[in-house]
Design goal:
Blueprint: E1 12-18, E2 23-29, H1 52-57, E3 62-69, H2 73-87, H3 101-104, H4 116-126, H5 133-143, H6 150-160, H7 167-177, H8 184-194, H9 201-213, H10 242-252, H11 275-284
Antiparallel strand pairs: 1-2, 1-3
């Protein structure tokens, strides 16, 4: 909601006119910790690079006007964008950053490289800040499909050398990768990368410990422990119902036993038979 409460701490829009050439600048301010009347030309000297220093050092050459105050930052920004769309082509206005940002939503600093000093300031300012889930989703969507250069990948690799991640971070990485399937090409690259890499004794001990968890027969005794003979029946000692026995009997009717007429307990069913005879026998069955 637009108001004119300039004695309250609220986001606001303002108008600055340079008297020497009558050029104007329309801006918005939402990070103020004091009311607008105690902020502009006292603490804040616009966001325009063209007039900021002059406005600060020679305030008598400028005339200011407070336009509106707003309840929220979003309302103030929307109003500024709407207003700047009307003036960005006019030569009497200094709002250069209004284009192309107001049309294509492209950041005015796109393509510009900040100095090391500026990057350090940004880094310090962002330390300890946690992005919201909405912001994280936007960043993720924006970065999809991007291909990093070899230099960038190498810099990331060097930066991660020796870095010890906390248990919480490792758990997050594990959950993020859960269910993902690497392509055949990626798996081959990973395999080649790991070839010949020696494992420490500590690493080997961890692998042994983890493998024990997945042993199918862990804690189970061998099935033939204490038994004699190599071919004990799997169903020895089990009792089947009359219905089951009848089904088994019917399913075997007409079948010729594989060892019929043979001597010994372990005579191969196809010993001495030629392929032709085998086919004839199958046809008879």
């Amino acid at each position: 909601m637009k108001t004119k409460q300039f004695n309250k701490i609220k986001p606001y829009t303002y108008l600055v006119t340079r008297l020497s050439d009558n050029k104007k600048y329309h801006g918005v301010r939402w990070g103020n910790k004091v009311p607008p009347i105690k902020d502009l030309r006292v603490v804040y000297f616009t966001s325009s690079r063209e007039i900021r220093n002059e406005f600060k050092n020679n305030p008598s050459n400028f005339k200011i006007k407070f336009c509106w105050t707003f309840d929220t930052v979003n309302e103030a920004r929307l109003y500024e964008t709407k207003y700047n769309r009307k003036i960005y082509k006019n030569e009497n206005w200094i709002n250069k950053n209004a284009f192309p940002a107001i049309l294509n939503k492209v950041h005015p600093l796109l393509g510009k490289k900040p100095s090391k000093e500026t990057r350090l300031k940004i880094s310090k300012g962002n330390k300890g800040k946690k992005a919201s889930l909405e912001t994280k989703a936007k960043l993720s969507k924006m970065r999809r499909g991007r291909k990093l250069s070899k230099t960038h990948i190498e810099n990331i690799r060097k930066g991660n050398i020796g870095v010890k991640r906390s248990l919480e971070t490792r758990q997050k990485i594990r959950l993020a990768n859960l269910g993902r399937k690497a392509s055949e090409e990626t798996r081959l690259k990973m395999s080649e990368m790991r070839k010949g890499v020696p494992k420490s004794e500590k690493h080997k001990a961890k692998l042994r410990k983890n493998l024990k968890k997945f042993m199918w027969n862990k804690g189970n005794e061998p099935w033939n422990k204490g038994k004699k003979g190599l071919q004990l029946a799997w169903n020895k000692g089990k009792k089947f119902s009359m219905e089951t026995r009848m089904r088994m009997s019917l399913s075997h009717k007409g079948h010729v036993p594989w060892n019929k007429g043979k001597k010994g307990a372990q005579v191969a069913w196809n010993k001495g038979l030629k392929l032709k005879k085998m086919n004839e026998r199958r046809a008879d069955v």
